[in-house]
Amino acid sequence: MRPTVRPISAAEHLAYVRAQRSVSFLQTPAWGGVKTEWRSESLGWFDGGRLVGAGLVLHRPVPRLRRFTLAYLPEGPDIDWTGELDVWLDPLAAYLKAQGAFAIRLGPPVRTHTWSAAQVKEGLADPGVERLTDLSGGPTGPVGARVTGRLRDAGWLLQSPQDGFGTGHPQFKYEIPLVGRTEDDLLGGMNQLWRRNIRKAAKEGVEVTVGENLGEDLGQDLKAFHDLYVHTAERDRFTPRPLRYFEGMFAALSAEDPERIRLYLARHQGDLVAAAILVRVGAHAWYAYGASATEKREVRGSNACQWAMIRDSLAVGCDVYDLRGITPTLDADDPHVGLIQFKAGAGGQAVRYTGEWDLPLRPTVYRAFELYMRHHMRNRGR
Fold it and tell me: How far does the signal peptide extend, from start to end residue (predicted)?
């Protein structure tokens, strides 16, 4: 089979997504409506008249090079990564180059390694272990290694840096498998602190509700979430997204599917103590954003929110609850280590994916883009 690539409508793309067990929410047609600073298009791979693969492409012009774009497929495309990659990626490159792309960036949804929560715990306790990759985590199978090797051989350039976070999406993630498990199984897989915090939240009377995805109610709930999220950003020293970003995210994703995105709110005696956003596509659920109050941390609203989202994901038949990005550090002196400590407490496993890769289509323009990005990152760090 040598599929051909051509644009498809949002409706065709959505029908394809709904026919799959799971596709990244970053590869749904609605995500193009969230990333308004990019021009988006849906592409399909066809075997004759049959749609056999799909991807959302985000086109971003580069300052001073505006006639050319970077074509980005975050956590995609959704194709058969187990087969010969050139039959899928060569027609993609030919199409995008003809459309004015100077490079393609994609993130294959393919795992290469996993580490159990027990292995992560042992690594955190061992001063001689500094990174996940120092542990004897087993490869997930031949596909991850084969994809990595074939991309490199075909001239693709790995973009994921040492800490797992680049200009795009993280290479290392934390996931809780749900298939064949019960709530008791999931609680049993958590560490003692997580179980104690979930019980503590219940004993203190923390109530978790789901915001209505309609009209004024969502507006009020989302504003309450955003206020708490800005507070969290100030405390934890990161740059928050504006309220309009989340308003656009809920509008676009909810229009595509009413069950696509949900807002969880944990309150104690009327005070909002934690909030989180859950996204679901098919059998995959993601914890996308979270926020927590500095006051009343002892009532453990964040654990209550997580447990509610995990239970709801299990109840609707999800295969996995995805806590999203981590850095691979296990070094007690690294300020990022708290992230993996918190997530590993929930059980599950740390996962390494193949990372994000660039294919230069116009090498001279691509080198100019790299120089621009290095200059931009240096200035941002000042």
Answer: none
